[in-house]
């Protein structure tokens, strides 16, 4: 995968760097509740500022759909960002046009500024060439450090990359290298763990993975749909019965590709979905009662999964195995995550995880730092697992 990185930059002192980052952070009562994405930008931003560039951060925040929404202004993120960075950060109330140009003209080498939400312009989501030209006029070169927004072909992630010398930032570079190692050119055998509630939201992921990996572990509510397709009565479990044929065709495709699909053969069930319910029990998948629901993979199946992963050299993980937010239905996810983390630490496994609930699940297991790489991306990580080309990445390769 060929793209330029900050190592390819020449002399940047006094030059204006337009750096696309992902500042789309969750907020609660005016405070950032998870600053992972802010921290992810630090290596690129400090490196550029230390080299004397004028660092101009371009980002979206929420989905204002072209409207100028004060509650989605990036001014709200400027102070929290300054605290994470530990340096002064200016806020510029526009990301294109005369006002932005005037404010930027006052900045000096090494200064850092956040420009206003790119999605206040309707042209952003249309990948509008005119908006991209207006943004490009503010900078001398472009850096994309927002892998988590790279699945969007937007003006600040795609069109802009063609108008200025374009480079991958440090976070983007690390992400692309890790993903390439996990699915592009992995050491075999490769296992993928795919969990989550619905098969319908991960059809493309599953269809792509069966042709790429040696072991596919299906967990979460999705496993119920596959069990039901195989004729197992899953009682009241979350299950997409209408996807029976789709599930069977994925299993057929896996057979043809010599991919071993792992579905649970013992499960943790309960009659109600609550923490530590009185009706909790573990049983064989063939013994689920009509009034019970499957809420986690059982301990015997987890042990078998751990044995399978021990034979692998690479692991890709997306989604929890059970209803992990509610105890004790986090047990399977935590146990398997700990096995993967230990194998990674021993040096026998490359483990890459990402998407939606996955980071929260690994944090709950206390092992996020022990994986080889944990992606902060949600939708972009899923599209990458689907084998899609991400427009923001492709633009950097051109
Ligand atoms: C995300 O939160 O996953 C990224 O910032 C992309 O946001 P979007 O889904 O609104 O494009």
Structure keywords:
398 residues; alpha/beta; Rossmann fold; 2 domains; six-stranded parallel β-sheet; 15 helices; 17 strands; binds 3-phosphoglyceric acid
Structure in words:
Helix 9 (220-229) packs across helix 10, helix 11 runs parallel beside helix 12 and helix 12 crosses helix 13. Strands 5-6-4-1-7-8 form a six-stranded parallel β-sheet, with helices on both faces. It has a six-stranded parallel β-sheet with strand order 11-10-9-15-16-17, sandwiched between helices. It has helices at 36-40, 42-50, 75-85, 98-105, 122-125, 129-136, 170-184, 203-209, 220-229, 244-256, 299-310, 331-346, 358-365, 379-385, 391-397, and strands at residues 16-20, 27-28, 31-32, 54-58, 90-92, 112-115, 141-144, 166-168, 190-194, 215-218, 260-262, 266-270, 281-284, 293-297, 314-318, 350-353, 373-374. It has two domains: 6-173, 3-Layer(aba) Sandwich (Rossmann fold), CATH 3.40.50.1260; 186-385, Rossmann fold, CATH 3.40.50.1260. Helices cover 35% and strands 16% of the residues. The mean pLDDT is 96. The chain has 398 residues and is of the alpha/beta class. Bound molecules: 3-phosphoglyceric acid (3PG). 3-phosphoglyceric acid binds next to loops.
CATH superfamily membership of the largest domain: Phosphoglycerate kinase, N-terminal domain
The CATH level-2 architecture of the largest domain is identified as 3-Layer(aba) Sandwich
Strands ordered across the widest β-sheet? 5-6-4-1-7-8
Number of domains: 2
